[in-house]
Amino acid sequence: MDSLFDSVAEEAHRSHEPLAVRMRPRGLDEVIGQRHLLGPGTPLRRLVESEAPMSLFLWGPPGTGKTTLAYVVAGATKRRFVEISAVSAGVKDVRAAIDQARRELGMSGRQTVLFVDEVHRFNKAQQDALLPAVENRWVTFIGATTENPFFSVISPLLSRSLLLTLESLGEDDVRAVLERAVRDPRGLDGRATLHPDALDQLVRLAGGDARRSLTYLEAAALLADQITVEVVERAVDKAAVRYDRQGDQHYDVVSAFIKSMRGSDADAALHYLARMVEAGEDPRFIARRIVIFASEDVGMADPTCLQVAVAAAQAVEFIGLPEGRINLAQAVIHCALAPKSNAVISAIGAAADDVRRGQIGQVPSHLRDAHYAGASKLGHGKGYQYPHDFEHGLVRQDYAPEELRDRRYYRPTKHGAEARFAERWARIRAFLRGETGA
C-alpha cells in the first residue's frame, strides 16, 4: 500500500515539474545533438561505461544539455547525484557535499556525481575547495559553464579535468526535441497538436536552446490544444518574427542591415539587428558581417571601427546571447555613425585585378631575400637601404616592380581620419617616386 502511495505521489510530483525537466533524457541514447561527444570511445561514453571516476567541464551556451548530460551520467552509472549551484552555494556547502560523498564511498562503495552549475561563478577559494575531491577522486566532478573556463576556472582544477565543448543545437535537433515532447507520455502525450508552421516558429524562437523551446511549447499548450503560430505568439508574449533564415527574408534583412549602416542610419541598422537576433540568427554570422563592413565601408576613415567590430565579435563568442546583443549593438552604432570610405576595398580590388591580368613584374633585386647561402652572389639585397637609418624613417628607393611603378591602388578619401592619411600618403608617394624635391 505504501509503495502504491509513493508511486502516485511521485507521479503527481512529476506532473507539476516543468516540461523541460520531465523531458530530460534518461540515457545517452536519448540525448539529441552533441554527436561529437556521444559517439563510441568518446570521454562521455567511457565515463558511463567505466566505474572509474572522472572530472569534466561542460562548456557551452544555455540550453545545450549540460545539466542533462550530468543527470544522464549519474543515472546510467547508478551513482548518487548531488547538484550545487555556484550562484548560491559557498565553501561550506562544497565541503559538506564532499564529506558526504566520502562517507558514502567508504560505507557502501557507491560513488557520487558532484555537479556544479555555473561553476565560473565560484571564486578562487570555492574552486580550491573542490581540488582535494578531484585530486583523490572522491567524486565524479562535473562543472557546467557558459563562460570560457580558461578565463574563469583556476588552472589546477582545469588541468585535472577533461574539457568538453557543447554546441548550440541545430534546427533539426530542436525540431526533434519538440516533436518528442508532443508525443512522449512524459511530455504532452499527444494531448496537443502542433501545427507545422508553429513548429517552425518555435524552432526559430529557440535559437538553438532546447530548454527555451520546451518552455515555449509548454506555455503554448496551456493556452490551446491546437497550437498555431498565433497561439505561440500569445504564449511567449512576443510578436512573430517574419524571417526565414534559409530563404529570401534572410538575405533581404541582411542586405538592409548592411545598407543601413552604409547609409549612416543607426536606428534602421539597429532595427534589422534586432530582427536577426530575435529570429535566432547565429550571432557569429552577424558579427562577421560587421567586421567585414568595418573595413569595406569605413576603412581608414575611422580605423578604430575595425577594432570595435572585432572586439564585439570576440565578446559574442565569449559571453553568447542574450547579453552579446549589447556588444553587437555598440558595434553597429559605431559603424553606422563613422565616416565612410570604400578606399580600402577598392585598393585591394584594383591590385588583385592587375595580378589576375598578369601584371606582376619582377621583385627588385635589392628587396629580395638575402639571408640564405648564395643569395649575395645573385645580387639579392645588394643596395637595399634601411629606412630606420634615415631621417623620418624614409629613403627614396624603388619598392614596386618596375612595370607597376606608376600604378595607383590606394586612393584615400577626405572623409574622417582618412583625410590625414590622404595628406601623408600623397607626400610619401611623391617623395618615394622622386616627384618632388622633398
Can you offer a commentary on this structure?
The structure is a single chain. With 438 residues, the chain is α/β, with parallel strands linked by helices. Helices cover 52% and strands 7% of the residues. It has four domains: 34-165, P-loop containing nucleotide triphosphate hydrolases (Rossmann fold); 171-236, Helicase, Ruva Protein, domain 3 (Orthogonal Bundle); 248-337, Zinc Finger, Delta Prime, domain 3, CATH 1.20.272; 361-432, Orthogonal Bundle (post-AAA+ oligomerization domain-like), CATH 1.10.3710.10. Helix 10 packs across helix 11 and helix 11 packs parallel to helix 13 (229-236). The relative contact order is 0.07.
Summarize the structure.
The chain is α/β, with parallel strands linked by helices and 438 residues long.
What keyword list fits this structure?
Rossmann fold; 4 domains; 52% helix; five-stranded parallel sheet; alpha/beta; single chain; 20 helices; Zinc Finger, Delta Prime, domain 3; Helicase, Ruva Protein, domain 3; 438 residues; disordered N terminus; two-stranded parallel sheet
Number of helices: 20
Name the beta content range: 5-15%
Question: Can you count the beta strands?
Answer: 7
Q: What is the average of the pLDDT values?
A: 83
The CATH homologous superfamily of the largest domain is called P-loop containing nucleotide triphosphate hydrolases
Topology:
Blueprint: H1 2-15, H2 19-22, H3 35-38, H4 43-49, E1 55-59, H5 66-76, E2 80-85, H6 91-108, E3 112-117, H7 124-136, E4 140-145, H8 149-152, H9 155-159, E5 162-165, H10 171-183, E6 193-194, H11 196-206, H12 210-223, E7 226-227, H13 229-236, H14 248-262, H15 266-278, H16 283-298, H17 304-319, H18 324-337, H19 343-356, H20 418-432
Parallel strand pairs: 1-4, 1-5, 2-3, 3-4, 6-7
Helix pairs in contact: 6-7, 10-11, 10-12, 11-12, 11-13, 12-13, 14-15, 14-16, 15-18, 16-17, 16-18, 17-18
